[in-house]
Amino acid sequence: MSSPPLGRRSHEGSANASDSDSEDEPTLPLNQFYPYIRCALCCGFLIDATTITECLHTFCKSCIVKHFFYSNKCPTCSIVVHQTQPLYNIRPDRQLQDIVYKMVPFLEELEREQMCSFYKERGLDVPKPVIVSPPCPAVIKRQKKDNVPQSVFTVPPELDVSLLLEFVGAEEGICNYKPLERRYLRVSGEATVRHVELFIRRKMELSPSCQVDVVCGDHLLDHYQSLKEVQNFVGEDALQDGLLVLHFGLVLPSQS
After folding, report:
1. 160-251: CATH topology
2. Which of 110, 147, 194, 197 could tie 223 with a disulfide, CB 3.0–4.6 Å?
3. pLDDT tens over the chain, length 256 residues
4. Which of 159, 163, 155 is CA-nearest to residue 239?
5. Phi and psi for 206 in degrees, rounded to 5?
6. Domain RING-type spans what residues (predicted)?
7. Which pTM does this prediction carry?
8. Which residue spans of the chain are classified as CATH 3.30.40.10?
9. In the CATH hierarchy, which fold is given to the domain comprising 31-122?
C-alpha cells in the first residue's frame, strides 16, 4: 500500500492545526463587557464618552452634563468633581468611544441616523464630521518651538480671585485638626467668606464647636462679604504678588 505524498500530508496537518487553533480561541458574550461600555446613568451604550478627570469614571456626555445641573459629585463614587464648576473637569474619551462602536454592531450608524433626523426635524444644518488634519511638516514644528510657549490650561474667567490662606494658630483647648495642605486657591469673586470657612473646615476636619475667624489686613471679615468686596475694600494692602491674603485662626465660641 502506497503512502500519500509528503506535501499533501503536511498540507492536511497544517489545515487541521489551524482549525484547532480557531476552535481554541475564547469567545466572550458582549454582556460581560457591559460594565465598561455602558453608561451608569442611562444604562445604554456610551455615546460621546466623557470621562471625569478626578476619578476617571465615564458616562455619556449628555447624561453627565444633565447630572451636573443639580449635583457636583460623580454619580458612581460620589467624589466632589469641582466645588462650583464640575464641567471644567470632564474630558472626551474618543478612544473608548471607538472601542464601543467596534464592539456594538450598527451603533455608530444608528446614532448618526438619529442625529441627522434630529437636525432635519428642526430645520437645522447637520454638523459635518470632524476631519483630523495630517501632521505638520517637521520644519513648521521647529518654527513653533522658537515661539514663546503658551499655557495649555486657560483659567476660566469666572475664577477671578487668587487666594493665599495663612494659618495663624489655634486657641488653647483646640486640638485634633489637620494642617491645611492647600493654601493657594483660585475662586470666583462672588464667593463669600463663608465659603472660605467651609473649605477650611472640611480640609482641616474641624469640629462644629470650633470657630474660624478670617482676617484680611486689620479687618475681621463677616461671613456674608464676597471676596471681590473684600479685595476692593482693603485695597493694595490685601494683596501679595497678586494674591488676596487671608489670615485665619481657630477659636472657641464665646460663653456669653
Report:
1. Ubiquitin-like (UB roll) (3.10.20)
2. 194
3. 444 444 444 444 544 555 555 566 778 888 889 999 999 999 999 999 999 998 999 999 999 999 998 888 999 999 989 888 888 889 999 999 999 999 998 888 898 888 888 888 888 887 776 554 555 555 554 545 455 444 444 556 666 788 888 888 888 777 778 888 878 888 888 888 999 999 998 888 888 888 889 988 888 888 888 888 888 887 777 788 778 888 898 888 776 5
4. 163
5. -85, 150
6. 39-78
7. 0.43
8. 31-122
9. Herpes Virus-1 (3.30.40)
